Amino acid sequence: MQYLVSVIYDNAALATPEEMAAIDVFNDRLEAEGHWVFAGGLAAPSSATVIDNRGGEAMVTDGPFVESKEYLAGFWVIEAADLDVALKLAAEGSKACNRKVEVRPFL
Amino acid sequence: MVASLTRRFGDLDIAEEAAAEAFATAVERWPADGIPPSPGAWLTTTASRKAIDRIRRENKRGDKQKEAQRLYDDDPSEPIGAIDDERLRLIFTCCHPALAMETRVALTLRMVAGLTVPEIARAFLVQETTVGQRITRAKAKIKAARIPYRVPSAEDLPARVSGVLAVLFLVFNEGYLATGPGTDPVRHDLTAEAIRLTRLIRALMPQDGEVAGLLALMLLTEARRAARVSASGELVTLAEQDRGTWDATLIAEGHRLVRERLAAAAAGVAPGCYQIQAAISAVHTSARDVRDTDWSQVVALYDQLVRLDPSPVIALNRAIAVAELDGPEVALAAVDRLEDKLAGYHAYHVTRADLLRRLGRSQNSRAAYDKAIELAGNTAEIAYLTRRRDQLG
Q: Which residues from B are below 8 Å from A82, CB to CB?
């Protein structure tokens, strides 16, 4: 079972060196224990471009598809047996990156 | 049976529907074929087959079917005693912290205690459609997010248990003042189930003060059950109950638990809400006559409770005790301050009606009784309130 652990944040500040170091330790642990699938940090929402090609011609729009105070700053995709395992890992991830996270299962 | 099917198939919907189908088949077949030698086992086996049929029908992917088959084969017969374990698992799943509190309550009442959606809606003053949606969404989340079906590990248990206790207390309360014209005024099945489940939790966590407190509170309330409804089917208030019919064994057990928690409190462990409410109940059940009740002790305990839980319902109960200590006028002033929050709660109007009656304000009292009768869902309480109203001068 895979879960998306979204990192939610409200400004464009990058992770501090301390936060980066804690994230590395956490990532190593995910790999060592077989939970690692993929992870990444994202550039600011202002760097996003929206494409809508449902109407025959691709519409290109600048900016995120929804403006919000808090947004997706990065994510992990983890492998976990059930939600309890995923929530425990997410709690550690939140501590490591020093940000709020949301856990959502893949179909 | 739903609990055991859920464990096998990991899906509340499938378990619930399979159980219902098995009962329906039994109703159809047993009159013609005769009752099987072991009806319980027959139902479980039939329900398991129905569940597997349904999974086969629904699943295009083969892996789930294999999983169900494997789970089914792993557990061909159910050892006695495993049922309790399965109930615990079901409780902890229904009370998972990833679900909203009101969802946990609704789901447990539906899945563990077997209440209907209308009963749950009445008990919590919400729309039936709201309850139905909560349950449907919760089941979908349990499935999609794979909320596990198990008792949490020892390290996670304390954090998980308070949500479970809240739910069990609500189940008990619904049993003790059951709603709906078609139900018994006191549903012993629900109070007994709540007590049984709380005992299970206590066996799991014997050192937990709030578990002991809640069990004591339930026992001391259950002890008064026989005195609670009169021969003519009216609710009997605490003050008017025949205390000789109270269950001395349950009271003794409840008092033992309260003493255990008082000793812990004396040793510096701050009591939680259930322990304080159990202590209040212990004061009541210690008085052989209502006139012997130590009301100053009751009010002092309510003061302690209000500091922990400043909810309007607690404030209402405190006011009822204040009426005995400081008189109905003081109490009425306190009750009237709760109008904004409790105007839709029948007990608010019951309390006002009684206080107004004692103050000789018959006309106001009558109006409050009317409102209370309109909002009350318990048949015995409606009978009692109607008589009281009609006796007003």
A: 146-148
Q: Which of A1, A7, A53, A51 is nearest to A26 (CA)?
A: A7
3-class secondary-structure state, position A49: strand
**Nearest residue in A to B97, CA atom:** A84
At which residue do the structure tokens 């404030």 appear?
B315
Can you give the residue ranges of every domain in chain B?
A: 1-78, 81-205, 219-293, 307-393
A16: phi then psi, degrees, rounded to nearest 5: -75, 165
Say yes or no for a CB contact (<8 Å) between A84 and B152: yes
CATH code of the domain occupying B307-393? 1.25.40.10
| Residues belonging to chain B | 393
Task: Please give the pLDDT value at position B7.
Answer: 67
The CATH architecture one would assign to domain A2-105 is: 2-Layer Sandwich (3.30)
The pLDDT tens digits of the residues spanning B147-188 come to 998 888 888 888 789 889 988 998 898 888 877 666 678 888
Q: Are B146 and A83 within 8 A, CB to CB?
A: yes
CB contact under 8 A, B96 and A83: yes
The model carries a pTM of 0.70
Q: Is ipTM over 0.95?
A: no
